[in-house]
Structure to design on (764 residues):
DNA sequence: TATGAATGAGGATTCATTCAT
DNA sequence: TATGAATGAATCCTCATTCAT
């Protein structure tokens, strides 16, 4: 029953329910089951929660991806599974992602943010490197850079769905197909 | 000396300086040189500024793109010019873009946002459609959807540079090359 | 119905009733009949009231002294009337005096404090100078400096009464006599 | 390494640095190097420190005075030495004196305060009584009362210097001369 | 004795919004 | 249209105090 983690967990929940601005510290501590003052033992302000939340988000994303992407399938299938996973996380946490992004952008925690996001980049980089060494994708690709671009692309495509469109699930299905095509051609994936 | 525009201009400035949450209406009106009450003659709330700001951003972006993308060059070159333009806008306004994104995400102005962003999507869609009809890119591409994905991809790639990396200009140069390759392969551009 | 003055007047009242620490801003604004936020239009904090309050205190003191000290009496009598007056003010506001002193001491308003207290010093200096020119007090006295010392002495003596002693009025009577003797001898007053 | 004394010493330091109101118990215990809860083993509240602090101040003052006032000099010289001593203590601890004064004024510890200050009064009373029996000062003086007045006068004069004036040391020199004259005439000192 | 994490009532402070001018 | 002083509900944050260890 670690109180700090409790607070972060509660904040994730409340933030994604009502947004940052409408969330009161008192909402968070109530959800976390700790006293008002306890919050300030661990965090000087609402926004200082962001790096901790971002960390959790990335963990969740990686966990989901690792759970969804199978070892014994083709690279092409893995891409589909990655896209599926990211769309899934975005569906569940899209508001929170936007808020983290904004929260980080309006603070000075960017360095931390990069550190936090790094495991995700590394994981995708490794996947691309492997595919490259097996000759399944273009030789000319810079894996680390492409990993970032690809993740950015998929996340941005997923967010578009959950921000703008109406019949989310149906739109998501179509958007995923398009992203899939887009990425595979971009990578020069050989089925 | 149109007061409404003054307010929007002031808001753009202050928002990108201190973020949305930390910006008070009083900061905006002071910067705009109008009275506190005047704000409410034009905008019912702080967040209702967002669509107006987004509109300005999109206008700026489109103006820059239209200024940079030449008529009499190959589609491949146009892609490069679009990437260049978006990186340029992002370099100058990356903080604001994050804020608009967040501001829109945390409000109910999404419909307006989509409307505002639409001209940009349409412009790129038209470009893609033309390229498709000329057989320069893949037949299988859904132009509207791909336009959105592509814009999302390029913007996200550009933001990565201006958010995280250190030697911005150099990194931007490399990132643009990679994005260019990525997009062209994705689209199946035939040089 | 000047709101700023209202706030100061209310603060004087509440402070002397319940002390600084126990006084809430909300008490002051309630007494002043203004809104909570109005306080902050004029004063950034509770302690920033102090110079304004000190000013009022000095005004009150001077008013009482000028009311009590007659023109057509001997210098010796005037001293007695001054002592009487200061003991009177101290009796009514001794807590406030201590608080102002503390409030000023714990802030950076000392310069202001001196400026505020100055009229009082000047008034007594003038009295001493007149007495000196009439040969009623010692030639060797430095009037400005002695004015300050004398005021300090009388106030400190008065405060001793209202801080420590029990039968205030009786003690005050005796203490005033002693102070009177003390001061007159110090000044070398010739009856 | 007596913890109680440590706390008092730390409180003296922090109080004179930041004032009573702005001093938190947590500041004091941090400075004292003890735990938060330890404070409450020795003192029921912040203000209950005051008598202990006052005691230290009076001890210091008496020590300095007893060290400076010589046995084998005239009463007149002793007065000068007392004035010197009080100015010295005030120079070093003037902020603290104001704070003790305020702290005591705003509490119910006045009885203790009087008890604590008493040795000082007694010491000066004895001196005056001796001088009186030797016929060196006025017969009519009430020694206990005059001791208080005199101490109050000198302290108040000293505080004026260290509160308001700029060239402290020079001003102090002049002020001391004036106080000396003032007191000696008041007492009717015969050289 | 000693600790220090946890508490939560209490009060300071903010700032979007109104409205008389 | 334009003003800006005034509002006061909303919420942040502090910090003296407690108590299980």
């Amino acid at each position: 029953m670690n109180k700090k983690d409790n607070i972060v967990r509660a904040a994730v929940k409340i933030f994604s329910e009502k947004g940052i601005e409408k969330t009161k510290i008192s909402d968070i501590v109530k959800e976390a089951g700790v006293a008002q003052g306890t919050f300030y033992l661990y965090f000087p302000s609402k926004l200082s929660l962001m790096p901790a939340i971002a960390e959790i988000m990335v963990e969740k994303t990686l966990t989901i991806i690792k759970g969804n992407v199978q070892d014994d399938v083709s690279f092409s299938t893995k891409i589909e599974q990655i896209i599926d996973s990211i769309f899934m996380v975005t569906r569940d946490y899209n508001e929170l992602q936007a808020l983290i992004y904004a929260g980080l952008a309006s603070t000075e925690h960017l360095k931390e943010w990069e550190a936090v996001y790094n495991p995700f980049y590394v994981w995708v980089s490794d996947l691309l490197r492997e595919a490259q060494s097996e000759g399944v994708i273009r030789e000319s690709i810079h894996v680390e850079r492409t990993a970032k671009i690809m993740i950015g692309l998929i996340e941005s495509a997923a967010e578009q769905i959950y921000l703008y469109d109406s019949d989310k699930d149906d739109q998501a299905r179509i958007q995923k197909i398009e992203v899939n095509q887009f990425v595979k051609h971009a990578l020069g994936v050989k089925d």
